[in-house]
Specification:
Growth Hormone, Chain: A, 19 helices
Length: 478
């Protein structure tokens, strides 16, 4: 009996918990992100070069990757809160891995068609929209309130590493092993991420107190749809957080619209090699920002961090647009990228500290849905804005060519520059306008922090229960 008890106790000690467990989880998710990024990059090349060279197919592939997030996020968020988050991450990684394996099988078959790719991308996207809220909502459970600044800096740095490494590795792997080889690497990254999840211990989400109807005194009951949409209701009641979400939706619209016209501007100023260099430098800048944020932990007033670095990003947009050149493009883009981790990490800390632990899946999923919607609108509207508004205005002899031509130049390049400055001014003005709202400005102090003490109590209770369970099993001779 004694030997059996000792064996089980040792096996418990091998389960990594707390900040150490988070580091393993973070590393596994970063490797998985690199693998997924490589597959996405290789898929785009394969669809364009081996499946007809259609830009429409590329656009549909991008839409299929984002659309599930807008549709299923509220429902995924509710299930993330209802289910064990560790199991949700395992399920998400497993489904994504099986879909990727299916892609590998189909690619080597003779009957592979473009619609197969679309279906697989949708399945992987659905899996990711379960996995990401579960991962993000797990961070505060593992590191606690005090280390959230550093943890979110690490999360942003990990995403930056994925953005840097995935295209470079995929470009090399595609030429050496084709899409099939890239898929095998992605499968390996899924397996590695799955192992890291299996060896860590994630505290259970504290149970919520039931809501009582003030009129009847009875416990409120919600339908599945009502539970899924509860994240909207929560954010509407916490008006400062609702305004923060709306700000991010508009911000994503601005930067998505700016991002679409970045490639044509870069190619007009230089070459594809220069554009690749710009992307690499931008990734390094974002990684640097994430590392600094992780070491610093961010400002105490998180809203000030969001607004301050968002204003800095707007300056970067304006630098790109005024008299576009290679130098101004690099300076402006690096300012934007180095600021990005601070904006995202400060906002992430707000969600994790202010939202009750048992609601974070729903609230984060709603946030993902709204911000993704902003991205999609920005992507769709960027081309028409450039073609039907800015280019006609700045064409030679156009309405604004005479007045603004000396600043931006004329023709297409002048129009793109003017569009960048306009988007930069819009970003600057929107950030200041939202900051002027006292509900948003005072969010850090007006909305109380979530109860993290209950997490410590529940963790201690779980450990006590586990210990008792081990002894009972051994006494019974199992």
């Amino acid at each position: 009996m004694t030997n059996g008890t000792q064996l089980n106790s040792n096996s418990q000690n091998h389960i990594l918990a707390g900040a150490t467990g988070f580091y393993f989880l973070w590393f596994g998710q970063m490797i998985s992100l690199i693998g997924s990024g490589m597959t996405c990059f290789a898929q785009s090349i394969y669809v364009y070069t081996d499946m007809g060279g259609s830009i429409t197919n590329l656009m549909l592939l991008a839409v299929m990757a984002q659309l599930p997030g807008i549709i299923i996020s509220p429902f995924a968020g509710y299930l993330v809160d209802k289910w064990d988050r560790r199991k949700v991450m395992i399920l998400g990684d497993t489904v994504a891995a099986l879909a990727t394996l299916t892609l590998r099988i189909l690619v080597v078959s003779k009957g592979f068609a473009i619609w197969h790719m679309y279906v697989i991308v949708v399945v992987i996207s659905v899996a990711n929209h379960f996995q990401w809220p579960a991962y993000f909502a797990t961070v505060p459970l593992m590191v606690g309130k005090e280390k959230l600044g550093r943890a979110n800096g690490m999360v942003q740095a990990g995403r930056s590493v994925g953005l840097i490494a995935a295209p470079a590795l995929a470009g090399w792997a595609v030429t050496q092993f084709s899409l099939k080889g890239v898929i095998m690497f992605d499968l390996g990254s899924f397996l590695f991420a799955l192992i890291t999840i299996l060896i860590i211990r994630i505290p259970k989400v504290p149970k919520a107190e039931p809501e009582i109807d003030s009129k009847t005194g009875e416990i409120k009951k919600f339908s599945f749809l009502g539970e899924a949409l509860y994240g909207f209701r929560y954010l509407w009641e916490k008006r400062g957080m609702f305004y923060l979400l709306l700000l991010f939706c508009i911000d994503n619209f601005i930067f998505a619209a700016a991002g679409i016209i970045l490639l044509p501007m870069a190619l007009s100023l230089g070459s594809a090699t220069m554009f690749g260099t710009l992307m690499s430098f931008g990734g390094v800048a974002a990684l640097t920002g994430g590392v600094i944020m992780g070491a610093w932990g961010g400002p105490k007033r998180r809203v000030y961090g969001v607004i301050g670095f968002m204003l800095l990003q707007s300056v970067g947009l304006m630098i790109i647009g005024i008299r576009p050149s290679v130098v101004s493009l690099f300076i402006g883009y690096l300012i934007i990228q180095v600021s990005l981790p601070f904006v995202n990490a400060c906002a992430g800390i707000i969600w994790q500290i202010k939202v009750p632990l048992h609601l974070q899946g729903r609230v984060i999923a709603v946030s993902s849905m709204v911000t993704t919607l902003g991205l999609e609108i920005g992507y769709i509207s960027s081309g028409p804005m450039a073609d039907f508004i800015f280019i006609p205005l700045m064409a030679v002899g156009g309405p604004l060519a005479g007045a603004l031509g000396p600043i931006f130049g004329t023709g297409t390049m002048g129009a793109v520059g003017f569009m960048y400055v306009t988007l930069g001014l819009l970003c600057f003005g929107v950030a200041l306008a939202f900051f002027a709202n006292p509900r948003l400005r005072n969010l850090d102090t007006e909305i109380p922090d979530a109860d993290f003490d209950i997490l410590k109590k529940d963790t201690a209770a779980d450990e006590m229960t586990d210990s008792i369970g081990i002894k009972q099993v051994n006494i019974m001779g199992d």
